[in-house]
Amino acid sequence: MDPHQDSGAPPGDGDGAAREIACDESGSDGENLTGGNTDVFAHAGVHVPVPEAARALREIRDRIRSPATEYKATHLLREKHRTVLEWFLAPGGPLHGAARVHLTEKSFFVVDRLAGVLLDDPGAAAELYRAVREALGAEDRRRFLSVANRLLRTRNGAEPGSSVPLFFETLDELRRTHAGTDAGPALERLAAGRGRAEAYRAGLLDGPAARIPVLNPLLPAIVATAAYWSGPGRRPVRLVHDRQNLLTPERIAWIEETARRSGVALAELRLVVARDDPRVQLADFLAGIARKAAGDALRGNGDPGLTALLRPYVDPASVWGDDRTAVALGLSVPDSSVRARG
């Protein structure tokens, strides 16, 4: 196995030039993290020269032989193409030692951001998440996450000013129902944060939170990707990213500034059309595969073989709260998650 896979450090290039990383994502539902189509958001970065990426795409086409003009991760995930999927991820494959994927467990991300806004204590997220997961029943857990998502999202699609009362009314009900349980102390802490919630919603009317959504995982995931490839030596990196409507010039500037403020040598974030860059297409494959594999594991119907193949690619700075799947994915306990904040 490539040494960097064991150490968590990116591979070296042998010179001081900026490292160019091609990126794409999978599982984006914007700020709708509790009612969307996926449980996991994945952001992949690939460090493969263009000619090698093009050869890998040709190899995949030759092996799969689909008439589709544009291949996606779903092609590799079909059971009949299992050998292609295994070749793609295994040692000796086109990505070995040259790719990383940053995972975000969406429910944990909501709780993490809620702790940051209401408690001004991001370190409380893991404890709050465990309380919600273990002490609340499935329906109460769904209600809690839903109103928390609505409280934090920039546009909640409801009558202006309704999200704060709804959240705290629901919280009061849950506090009464689960008084004396392990969830009690965590819910009590949140109840003291109404003033912070009101200030947060007021700031959305005309403030940076309206332009830089706190609840969209793409922006911090890009910063985390740059951080991994820049490494402890702060090597300059350039990110080549598939075009996204969310990535406006203002948000790109925020990403670059946040990275630099965090000590990450992000030289540039450039948007391209995925079908015109084979490296971005490889990143799209990895992100889609990782999102599906991690989501299946989270729901308890994971593929152990695929999870094992994915494990060397998973960024240890992934935002993940579920202990059981964290172990399967090779992640540390949730307290060690690294998150980029504005």
Model description:
With 342 residues, this protein is an alpha/beta fold. Helices cover 50% and strands 10% of the residues. It has helices spanning 3-7, 50-64, 73-77, 82-89, 106-119, 125-135, 138-152, 163-177, 184-191, 194-203, 208-211, 218-230, 249-261, 278-298, 304-310, 323-329, and strands at 19-26, 40-46, 99-105, 237-242, 266-272. A five-stranded mixed β-sheet has the order 3-2-1-4-5, with helices on both faces.
Keywords:
342 residues, alpha/beta, 16 helices, 50% helix, globular, disordered N terminus, disordered C terminus
SSE blueprint:
Elements: H1 3-7, E1 19-26, E2 40-46, H2 50-64, H3 73-77, H4 82-89, E3 99-105, H5 106-119, H6 125-135, H7 138-152, H8 163-177, H9 184-191, H10 194-203, H11 208-211, H12 218-230, E4 237-242, H13 249-261, E5 266-272, H14 278-298, H15 304-310, H16 323-329
Number of strands: 5
Number of helices in the DSSP assignment: 16
Taking all Cα atoms into account, the compactness measure Rg is: 20 Å
Mean pLDDT: 88
Q: Work out the helicity level.
A: 40-55%
Strand content: 5-15%
Given helix and strand content, the structural type is alpha/beta
Taken in chain order, the helices and strands follow as: HEEHHHEHHHHHHHHEHEHHH
Q: In order across it, which strands form the biggest sheet? A: 3-2-1-4-5
Shape: globular
Uncertain runs with pLDDT below 50, 5 residues or more? 1-7, 336-342
Distance between the termini: 36 Å
